[in-house]
Amino acid sequence: MAEDRYRLLKERFNLIVDEPAEVVYTSAAAALLEQPVMEELLGIYQPLVNGMEQIVAEVYAASWFRRPMLALVYLLAKYRMAPNLSLDNLTLYVCKADGYYHVYFRLNNAELLQSPATEKEAGEWARARLEVFFHETIAPFFHSIERAGTAKASLLWGQLPTSLAYEYGVMMASSESEGVKESVDTLYKTMKTLDPAIFYRKRNPLDVKFQYTEAIDDPAKQMRIKYACCHYYKVEGGRYCYTCPRISNTERDQRRSEHRAKLK
């Protein structure tokens, strides 16, 4: 059973327990709080993703924590367990596979922590795990990116809400039991009510409202506009995403018309 969970963590959430193959860069996650180490990582990663400016690497680095965040929610909801996601327990790896570069976090101590038995204690424990993760793992990492680069913390935090909303929809539409779905719903609501001080922000960066637009290929469907730009347009050969918040409705209409014309 444990092997199945670790396989899931690797395949779905980029959390690993063993040394990966084809490593091009590795560092203890805690060491990346040191500005020279973070600068080195960003400098190495930028050309790997064909970024024309370093801010591409900075924004992409912020997005690395989306999967561990979603892993935490999934394990809490389904198994009432949690991995130790402290920076001291994580090692970062940049690996090459199939012509692309993937980032993994290895759990140095892979033991999964078990929730208390009672409902009240389990709820308080789950909330504490979320608070510790955002306060002691993500926030310091984002602060380090901000010190070493040009991206503001607001842009870095802005990479998380869209993934959260998407994964919430996936989970709620999945074949998971109603009990798991109720737990997922509770956890997502909990994250939106965490004290802003947890994030070192004036407001909770996960408690956001999304705008929607007509789906690019189906007028009967709506697509969620990303909460923050991922800066793909600053990648060689890249462009603004159809759901990028930076583009106008006029440009979106044009992109939609062009796409549908190609389908005819």
3D structure, described in words:
This protein is 48% helix and 14% strand. The chain is α+β, with helices and mostly antiparallel strands and 264 residues long. The strands form 3 sheets. Strands 1-5-4-2 form a 4-stranded mixed β-sheet, with helices on both faces. A two-stranded antiparallel sheet has the order 3-6. Strands 7-8 form a two-stranded antiparallel sheet. It is globular. The mean pLDDT is 95.
Question: In a nutshell, what does this entry contain?
Answer:
The protein is α+β, with helices and mostly antiparallel strands and 264 residues long. It has helices at residues 2-13, 35-48, 54-63, 66-79, 119-148, 153-157, 161-172, 178-192, 249-263, and strands spanning 15-16, 23-28, 81-83, 90-97, 100-107, 112-114, 212-214, 222-224. The chain is built from nine helices and eight strands.
